[in-house]
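Re: the request from the purification team.
They wanted to know what the chain is likely to look like in 3D before they choose a buffer screen. I agreed to run a prediction and write the result into the notebook, where they can find it.
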Amino acid sequence: MPRKRILLSGMMFLQFLMLPVWFVPIVPYVQSLDGGGEWVLWCGLIMGFGTFTSPLVGMFADRFLNAEKVMALCDFAGAAMLSAAFFVRSPGLLFVLLLLAMCFYMPTWALSASIAMAHLPSGEFPKVRVFGTLGWIASGVFSYIGVRWFGVENFDTTAWIFACGAGASAAGGLLSLALPPTPPAAKGTPVSVADALGLKALVLFKRPEFCAFAAVLLLAMIPFMWYNVYCAAYLKESGFKFLTITLSLGQVGEIGFMLLVPLIVSKWGYRAAFAIGIGALAFRNAAFASSCALGFAPGDFAGILVHGLIFGLLVVGSQMYIDDNAPKELRNQAQGLVNLMTAGVGVFLSNGIFNAVLAPRADGSRAWTAAYLAAFCIACVACVLSVVLIRPHRGVTEVASPRA
């Protein structure tokens, strides 16, 4: 494997290793703190808040500084915030630190995609992005080592999750400095107010096909994102112990599904890719609902294992769609915009709907069955709209050389 590809693969591995070790178990951890129950909702929203910096950071990488250097700065800053979080026991102060960590981390999803696709053909991107999946799976090792080797009981609800996240973030920053140079494509061009705010990519909404894509994506993110935020809490209430490891089973299947993404896009187009991904999203929520209502335990594992198909076709497929359709000088901002839609607005819409459904009852239990049925219905509507609204456009299929 060429050196460039090894570095890009390592970048993906570390960028997606550093988040789940602390974010996946964040709700159970906050609940374990004195007064933490009042901050669960806010901590569940930090990913959404963090994505609002993505277009701004993308603008900086488009116009002023190499993307790999911008990503290194973000990783080092995130490591500093997580290091401080290790020593904090006040849920309010913890929220501030984790919010700042997310504001630095979330732009790296868009930056890592832009960097990889600047040096690889769009159709080859999933073959590198799959190492991010491996990184997410590997994050479960921290929990296992903490419990088995160091005797840290209930590792996922201790502050050690932040120490591990800080170490991985620092490693990601160091590797970013060794990545192939990705200079700003729009360097030297006049900067408008929209540029300064990272909003120039909003010009894409002038295209009807992009509006349709954005509408379907946002609707699909409502059931998608609440899985990321609350599934660990659901599993904990269902009696699971190793939360990060259990949820990482979804990434195991993702390894194979990720490699199918370019084949599906090139053969059937983005409309089919999104429809299949959202259909899998509906299946997931039906599986969880069956587990809640009927005590069908395999439903939990079925809902987790299908995660890779959903993530690959919706999130990675969206990144490929942007790379195929956005102007070169706006590519980082455009990736930041889709990141804002998926992990930002999607989180707020998701929490706004499901927190009302999941409000604790008098006996302390929560209506998980009703929530999963609501998510199933939303996913079904999004699936239908993807078929009706999105044009059957196929992505770039070249595999020989990267675009200039």
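For the purification team: The two ends are 21 Å apart (CA to CA).
Please add any questions underneath this entry.
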